[in-house]
Amino acid sequence: DYERACVEQHRALWRRSIPCDAVEQGMELEGYRLVLAPWLYMVKPGMAPRLERFVEAGGCLVLTFLSGHVDERGLCFEGGFPGPLRRLAGVWAEELDTPWPGQANRALPSPAAESALPGALSGEYRIDSFCELVHPLPGENTETLAVYGDDWYAGMPVLTRRRRGKGSVYYIAARVEQRFTDDLVAALARELGL
């Protein structure tokens, strides 16, 4: 599934003829305007401060569910997920739900979505697996741009945005269909002039 997540994000760039690099966690991010980091499960030493510098300088970071769970030794971070990325993302993950095969949920744009990303999200988007339950951190000005449509977590965030410094961090809390990724990346590309 990790490979699928990477391919889906790459496909959204490829469809817009936006070239990209695959970088490892030790590299500096100067010169980039957009960083897509699907399933950043392991966060090695120094990575969180590099991402913070990138965002504060004006970069746009997109994180997803299953981010910030373990360190370079495979040990879970204490204090909740996404570990050392919590403050940067402006969310904490309470739990991860994985629907049974054939079950689905929906991602629905919130009222804040249109002002945050004009014309980006439209209609409903199918969620077929991995529904992370996240909460915006108090006092971090995290906006909810899309919510779950069904089940006991209806109304909880699927997509959030936190502005920090000159940049923004988006957090995708679920495995949402390709059209959602395409729409989000298209909007970010327009905003960033890619």
What does this structure look like?
It is built from five helices and nine strands, in the order H-E-H-E-H-E-E-H-E-E-E-E-E-H. The protein has helices spanning 2-14, 47-56, 86-89, 111-116, 178-192, and strands at 34-37, 60-64, 91-97, 105-109, 125-136, 142-148, 157-164, 167-172, 174-176. A hairpin with a 2-residue loop joins strand 7 (157-164) and strand 8. The longest helix is centred in the last third of the chain and has 15 residues, at 178-192. The protein is of the alpha+beta class. Helix 1 packs across helix 5 (178-192).
Order of helices and strands: HEHEHEEHEEEEEH
| SS field, number of helical segments | 5
Compute the number of strand runs. Answer: 9
If you average the pLDDT, what whole number results? Answer: 94
Helical fraction = 10-25%
Taking all Cα atoms into account, the compactness measure Rg is: 15 Å
Low-pLDDT regions: none
User: Roughly what fraction of the amino acids lie in strands?
Assistant: 25-35%
Note the main sheet: 9 strands, mixed
Distance between the termini: 28 Å
Shape: globular
**What class would the helix/strand composition place it in?**
alpha+beta
